[in-house]
Structures are given as structure tokens and as C-alpha cells.
Amino acid sequence: MPLLIFGKSAKLRCFYGDNMSDLNLWYSNSPRAWMNSSIFSSWLKEFNEYVSKTQGRKVALLIDNASSHGRIEDIPDLSNLEVILLPKILHLFYNRWTWV
């Protein structure tokens, strides 16, 4: 699976002249270089295609409840993924630096 990198620039200068697919990278951008639901849904569709080509079976994907993930139910055709959303209460058990 290509590594997802996102930043502010529409085109990265450090990869000027390189084909991103040759580097096994997938780049996307947003004004603040933050993950958003559009980037995430595009990545999720790409990951679904990758799983269908390489695994030939369904896989489980655990996702936290970050707002940037949007509504998983609204993304069509995730036939090779079983998306499991972690419960919102999980933050009570997780400290920023250590597990409680």
C-alpha cells in the first residue's frame, strides 16, 4: 500500500520530476495540511482497491472517531473492507502519553 502523505502545497518541490507512483507514495493536500473527510474517503477507496488486488478477501480496518473521518456509511462500494469504528468512550482509557 502506498504511503499517504499530505501537506499544504499542491505539488511538492522535494519530489519535483519524480513520478509519485514510482516512489510508492500517495500525496494529497489541504489548506492547513490536516486530514479531512475528502482526503480520508479518497484514501479509503484506494485502500479498498488495494485490498481487492492483493488480498482477495475482506479485511477489518479499525478507525477511531476523529471528525476528519466523516461518515463511513456514506462511502459506497467498500466491498473488501469491514470498517470497525472504535467507541467514543475510548478516550477515557487513553492518556496522551501512556495507556492507563
So how many helices?
1
Average pLDDT score: 79
The rounded distance between the terminal residues' Cα atoms is 32 Å
Into which percentage range does the β-strand content fall?
A: 15-25%
Q: What is the gyration radius calculated from CA atoms?
A: 16 Å
Helix/strand-derived class? alpha/beta
Low-confidence stretches: none
- Tally of individual domains: 1
The percent range for helix content is: 10-25%
**Biggest sheet statistics:** 2 strands, parallel
What is the string of helix and strand elements?
EEHEE
Shape: flat
Cross-sheet strand order for the largest sheet: 1-2
Number of strands: 4
Q: What are the defining features of this structure?
A:
100 residues, 20% strand, two-stranded parallel ribbon, flat, alpha/beta
Report on this structure.
The chain has 100 residues and is of the alpha/beta class. It has one domain (3-92). The protein starts with a strand and ends in a 15-residue tail after the last strand. The strands form two sheets. Strands 1-2 form a two-stranded parallel ribbon. It is 18% helix and 20% strand. The chain is built from one helix and four strands.
Write a brief structural summary.
The chain is α/β, with parallel strands linked by helices and about 100 residues long.
Structural topology:
Layout: E1 3-7, E2 25-29, H1 37-54, E3 59-63, E4 81-85
Parallel strand pairs: 1-2, 3-4
